[in-house]
Design goal:
- The complex is a heterodimer of chains A (about 80) and B (about 260).
- Chain A has about 80 residues and is mainly beta.
- Chain A has one domain: Beta-grasp domain (Ubiquitin-like (UB roll), Roll).
- Chain A has one helix and seven strands.
Amino acid sequence: MLKDKPQHAVLINNNQWLEIEPQGLMLSAVINQLSLVESSIAVAVNNNIINKALWHEYVLADGDQINVFSAIAGG
Amino acid sequence: MDKHVKLSDQAFIQYSRQIMLKGWGEQGQLTLLNKHVAIVGCGGLGNVTATYLAGAGIGTLTLIDDDEVELSNLPRQFMFDHDSIENAKAFEVANRLQEQHPSLQLNQHAQRLTRDNTTSLLGNVDLILDCSDNMPTRYLINSFCVEQSVPLISASVANWHGQLLLVSPDSPEYGCYQCLFPQAPKEANSCKTLGVSGPMVGVLGSFQANAALRFLLNLPSDLNRQIHLVDGETFSMQPLNRQRNEQCPVCRQPN
Ligand SMILES: [Zn+2]
């Protein structure tokens, strides 16, 4: 179950709130914070894929929904 | 093969329930009869897509897989049984389909797709379904499709999750498979490493076959500009909007 939203936070993969500073946070910082392997992940903010080249300039706002995932190979 | 220009009475009855669908009709059925689809990977997704496409009356299927049937495939690869074990999957699927659909044209190749054989195995197809189980093959199919302007419907599944997307030569602005996934994860997200729910293979394969039919019938969908994340734990599908990655080595526009 998803917990109540903190005052300033972004939602990760529909199941976890990550608190951010009121002035916002860089997408690349969130990815660092989640200690993800950058080279193999795809990231979407509010259902739009954000290419890796833009992660360091994309400022997240309160309530943004972030999906982080990698390629599934199985068939 | 000569082009089909009219449905037989028997075919009309056989396909009547789909011919009834809006946008399908007798003309759509004839369209399918004249189409050639390649299925790369004859495992879980391949079993489902081959069954539904052959059932829907596609004219020609090309099946490619270098794997043999293993005991651990049986829970979800329903075209195989204990007698199939150690037989080539591509031949097993082809034999089963030919029994069910005597007029279906089939090309089956028990070979691994490689850079050297893509053109000979995949030339002249109208659509490729990526049903493979590994990242090198997925990247190889994607580059072939982009280079040769062949539409690609990619599905994958592992654990309780799946992914589905269409890369269409008609809408390059939404990018290709490699735009989305520039690099493979160090350890592949495969059924071998993560396990898989059999019914989720059915869900992804069914959506992939449905997407193929709608694409071939020229019926509208947003799959060419989205990737769907399919979640078998929450029973949800989440469409994410794709965009071309300007750094993509596969589909980057020459300056
Ligand atoms: Zn690309």
